[in-house]
Each structure stands twice: as structure tokens, then as C-alpha cells.
Amino acid sequence: MTGRGLTPPQTVGPFFHGGMLQRPLNVMVAPETKGDRVRIEGHVYDGDHAPVSDAVVEFWQANAVGRYRHPADQRSMPLDQSFAGFGRTGTDEAGAFWFETIRPGPVPFPGGGTQAPHINVAVFARGLLHHLPTRLYFEDDPAVRDDPVLRTVPEVRRATLLAKRIAGGKPVYRFDIVLQGDGETVFFLI
Amino acid sequence: MARSRDPNFPPYFYEAYRSTVRRSPRQPLIAVPHTLSEITGPGPVVSSADGEDNDLTQNLGAEGEAIGERIIVTGRVLDDDGNPVPNTLVEIWQANAAGRYRHRIDQHHAPLDPNFLGFGHCRTDEQGNYQFTTVKPGAYPWENHANAWRPAHIHFSLFGSSWVSRLVTQMYFPGDPLHELDPIFNAVPTDAARDRLIGKYAHDVTKSGWALGYRFDIILRGPEGTPFEPPVPSRTAKR
To answer: Between chain B's N and C termini, which has fewer beta carbons within 10 Å?
Structure first.
């Protein structure tokens, strides 16, 4: 530790739209982006299961082959020039949000393992004095059974991290975020 | 994994700030090791986007200038080893000089300023310096408790170098009597950490005949950030 203390976080409050969402970024793909298209739809709910209509949800993910567009990822698999991996949007009156993205590839785990494809998620809202990090995995991916992070989560709570395929032709997944109470989403200390 | 939240960070549940009561998680957060998912992050990609928009006194596109006490807010963005975080996006938003946000849900009976938008962004330079010109925001009432007023503040959002660096915070102004009454400010548990949220009057930043200067440095977690041991010295852990 150094003597420098970190700047503490504060809530985004209710008035963040101009500052953070002047240009919402919930279409994360371009026509030429490589990978399987997925649409993620969800809601943010509070401890009364009331919709949180003033939340910001951010996504950060690897591309279709599991490479992050970031200098710390120096592996040799290709970047996709048409995919940044970042998304950000707000919730509406019903607490709803959506993203159009691709299914990410698997990424390595320290010590030689592999993490199942996942999207890193951050939630900001009035009433959150610090944002809440979580992860989105795909329920229909067999790799989730062996994911080293999911295995550290008590089994009864793992389902909160699994986006569920909605019946129908298009690959649409449901991922609700429950801040508190019944079905409370697992949040991570990172 | 043995990792603790920074003891200087506000808790998720802080009863005096009423919005935390039904929005804070009740289950403990689960510590995860830092993998590629955590040591990467969107900072570099979002920071490569578009140009500067760092003069809030005239960025609405109207002819005139914002009304209020013109100020310069500047500082350095550093990681917790003291290294500058260069070329990183800094986003801000704030109320106008009368304490009113240009936002559809702000019903405060105070005037909108036709020349003030209330948000902007810039990027740090190679030494981690950022700078905004704006007007000093006003205090405004809110519904948290009887006669509740938020002290003047500017919201800041930064991505830094990794997913663990992400920070949204607020800069306050020195000498504000509302500090001690504000539950959001006081949710930060220590004097030292609260003091880090207060911009300091900086006469060397003040421009003669033009604007008062404030300095607000921001320390982000670095990519390998907090060590995996609890960062609390044993003497404070006993409390």
C-alpha cells in the first residue's frame, strides 16, 4: 500500500443522463462484427421488486474469440476492428434495459483454467454509493458448469448470473438485476 | 479470497441516505481474483472516441455565456502508485448556479439558465492533468429528510485503465456548511477520505480578472490495485 488513499465513490444520483448517457451505447455491434448476435434484455429491481428507472448499466466484454480490446490483453488471437466491447445504457420507466451484442469467447483464468464466456456488468443508480459489479453468463452454455468464478458462488445463488434464452427464433436472453432481497443478484468485490 | 472493501469507501447501506435502504444488496459481495476480465476495461476504448467539451460556460450552443461564478476545476488523475493516468476520459455533470439541473425530473423551483447545459467531458493529458471551465453549482433541496439540501457539487465519472479503476464520485467545495448535514457526503466514513472529495481553492489556478481556480486530484485503483490481503492495519481493524 502507498500513502495515497483512493478517491471514494459517490452515487451517480438521479441527474446523470446528460453526463453519462448523452450517447447511449446499447448497440455494441456493427454489421461486419464477427460472432453470434445476441440481444440481452433485462430489468433492474429494488428490494421491493419495484423497477429502478434511474440506473445505468455498463457492459464490458471480450470479442467473439475471447480477446479484450485492451493493452493488458497481449494474446495473439485477433481483435475485431468493428467491436470495442463496451456498452452503456440507462433503464426506462419500467426499469428495463437492452443491449445488442455478440456472445463473447472464453477467456483464461489465472493458473491455467478457462472462464466461461461472460460479460462484465456494472450497475450505477441513485442510492448506490458505489457501483455494483456483476457478471452475465449464458445459461445454455455447458461451460458455465466448470467456470472457476461461478464455482465460488453458493449454488443457490448462481442462477442470478445466468442469462436465460427466451423462446423464439432470435437469440434473446433475459438478464434481470435484483439489487436486494428475493433473488438478489450476486455482486462481486473486485 | 481475502479481499476487503476499502475501509474509506462508503458502505452500500447507509440508512441516513434513504435511497440506499431498498437499493443496497443485503448479501455480502463475493471476492473474485483479478483475471483478464478485471485487469482490462473500457477506459482505453472510450477515451479514444471524440473531441473535448470542457467549457461548460458556453457548450450549450446558444450565443451567450452561463450565468454564475466562473470557475476553473483542474487536477491530476493518478493511480494508487502515484502514476499519472494519461489520455483518460473524464465526464462531469452538475446543477447550474441556481441549483437546477437541466433534466426532466428536476422540479426545483429555480431558474434554468438558457446558456448552461451542465455537462461536459475531456481527456487527461500525458501527465494525467484535466481541466474544465464552468460555473460554481448552486445547492439544491432534495427529499431525503426535512429541509434537506445537497451541498454544491460536481459529479465526476472516470474509467481509468481497468475494470477495477471505474469510479463515479462527486467533488465538493471547501467551507460549505452543508457538508456536515449531507448523508451522501457523510456516508464516506473517515475525515481523511471525505477531505479527498473536497476540491481545494488554488490561487495558482485562479486567472486574474477571469475565474476562480479549484484543484481536485483523483486517485483511481491501478490495474493490479489493492493487494489481495485486507488493506486495514490491525490497529484500525479492532474498532
So the answer is: C
Residue type, B193: A
Q: How many domains, in total, are found in chain B?
A: 1
pLDDT band at B61 (very low <50, low <70, confident <90, very high): confident
Name the phi and psi angles at A32, rounded to 5: -90, 0
CATH, domain range A17-178: 2.60.130.10
Q: Which value does ipTM take for this structure?
A: 0.96
Q: Between A and B, how many CB-CB pairs are < 8 A?
A: 232
Residue B103 annotated among the catalytic residues of the structure: no
User: Contact A10/B170 with Cβ under 8 angstroms?
Assistant: yes
Question: HSE on the CB side for B48, CA within 13 Å?
Answer: 8
Residue pLDDT, tens place only, B121-160: 999 999 999 999 999 999 999 999 999 999 999 999 999 9
Strands B89-94 and B153-158, bridge-based pairing: antiparallel
Report the residue from A15, A73, A132 with minimal CB separation from B101.
A15
Let me know: does B165 contact B43? Beta carbons within 8 Å: yes
Is residue B170 a part of any domain in this protein?
yes
A132 touching chain B per CB within 8 A: yes
Residue B153 known to be catalytic: yes
> For residue B201, what is the domain's CATH number?
2.60.130.10
Q: What is the pLDDT of residues B72-124, one digit of tens each?
A: 999 999 999 999 999 999 999 999 999 999 999 998 999 999 999 999 999 99
